[in-house]
Design a protein that fits this description.
The chain has about 160 residues and is of the alpha/beta class. The chain folds into 2 domains: about 15-45; about 55-150, Rhodanese-like domain (Oxidized Rhodanese, domain 1, 3-Layer(aba) Sandwich), CATH 3.40.250. The protein is about 40% helix and about 10% strand. Strands 1-5-4-2-3 form a 5-stranded parallel sheet.
């Protein structure tokens, strides 16, 4: 009679020598790095992170817009020609909102754009049209050119 060996195979335990100080130091450094990375990712709000990546908030104040204006940022006025003739900020470009989608090739690509109108409503629509068409660094000015003029900023 042949009998099969029903014994359990021998398993050799792997022993790690924890007396090596370099191993402990490496382990601690790895744990510290992982912990530091997890803390740094929690400290930034999603809104702040998105604004930092894109560069401009969806809407900015008249004062913030004036700072950008002084830096030479491209300003797009989406009012009607009649409103433009009444007054406008110097060195801005007029493309009425109802023509904007057909005149996108006239705009600078890869540059920040501030969209303005009379009160701030149409500029939001204009901003959204630009963003939908790949102009990522686009913002609108709240308060519009009325508030711009009331703040004493230049108009012609």
């Amino acid at each position: 009679m042949n009998r099969k060996n029903n014994s359990i195979p021998e398993v050799k335990a792997i022993s790690i020598d924890f007396n090596n100080s370099w191993l402990w130091i490496s382990l601690l450094l790895i744990l510290f790095s992982v912990f530091s990375l997890s803390l740094s990712s929690c400290s930034t709000s999603p809104v702040a992170l998105a604004e930092a990546q894109i560069g401009l908030a969806d809407e900015i104040s008249v004062d913030e817009a004036y700072e950008l204006y002084q830096d030479g940022v491209y300003f797009l006025d989406v009012r009607t020609p009649e409103e433009w003739d009444e007054f406008h900020a110097p060195n801005t470009t007029l493309i009425p909102l109802d023509e904007l989608e057909y005149r996108l090739t006239e705009l600078p690509e890869g540059e920040p754009i501030v969209v303005v109108c009379r009160s701030g409503n149409r500029s939001q629509v204009g901003r959204d049209i630009l963003k939908e068409n790949g102009f990522e660094e686009t913002t609108s000015m709240s308060g519009g050119l009325r508030e711009w003029m009331e703040s004493g900023y230049p108009v012609e």
